[in-house]
């Protein structure tokens, strides 16, 4: 049976949301739900398991679309396509931080909508398969080791060999001492499997293993063979963690 792609639509303009839903369904997609804010987001992602999120940037309320996009990246490993009536550089720069799979400027035609959604889904699937990226890592073994599925193999990873994690859109790059493994998963899920006493967030896109840090200052962290940025707001947390842990 052919899989019907499921789409979560987050748009606070009711008439536009209904029109977009109709266009998608006429083109063979299923719209699992229409949300107008972040309320119910977690439940919708967990229960409906959409394949893609169409997300308006300029939402009214406590969280705008960019903030919700960041929430989605923490909660689910799925593609995001932004909808917006603005093409301002500031907005585009903020959107780029989330690494969306697509971007549609309002008003848009049916052809633009369907083409962008189709390309985003196909590109996402191709990227995942092409690199042998797992949808969810298999964690098996003791607290110090687990296995990650990569290109059809379950590969052993010693937690103490992980230098840092880098998030990029729906992907997490696990940087070991001698190689990098990329998985399609949320950093929140992966972090829940790592010791929080020495794996800490040091930047909006980086989590570091402080046991393997060779040196750091207010801007950078150095490992044996790599350097990553240190966010200003995370410096004090890093100092506290280094003081507490028994290295």
TrEMBL record:
<feature type="modified residue" description="4-aspartylphosphate">
    <location>
        <position position="56"/>
    </location>
</feature>
<dbReference type="Pfam" id="PF00072">
    <property type="entry name" value="Response_reg"/>
</dbReference>
<dbReference type="GO" id="GO:0000160">
    <property type="term" value="P:phosphorelay signal transduction system"/>
</dbReference>
<dbReference type="GO" id="GO:0003677">
    <property type="term" value="F:DNA binding"/>
</dbReference>
<dbReference type="InterPro" id="IPR011006">
    <property type="entry name" value="CheY-like_superfamily"/>
</dbReference>
<keyword id="KW-0597">Phosphoprotein</keyword>
<dbReference type="InterPro" id="IPR001789">
    <property type="entry name" value="Sig_transdc_resp-reg_receiver"/>
</dbReference>
<dbReference type="InterPro" id="IPR007492">
    <property type="entry name" value="LytTR_DNA-bd_dom"/>
</dbReference>
<dbReference type="InterPro" id="IPR050595">
    <property type="entry name" value="Bact_response_regulator"/>
</dbReference>
<feature type="domain" description="HTH LytTR-type">
    <location>
        <begin position="157"/>
        <end position="211"/>
    </location>
</feature>
<protein>
    <submittedName>
        <fullName>LytTR family two component transcriptional regulator</fullName>
    </submittedName>
</protein>
<dbReference type="Pfam" id="PF04397">
    <property type="entry name" value="LytTR"/>
</dbReference>
<feature type="domain" description="Response regulatory">
    <location>
        <begin position="6"/>
        <end position="121"/>
    </location>
</feature>
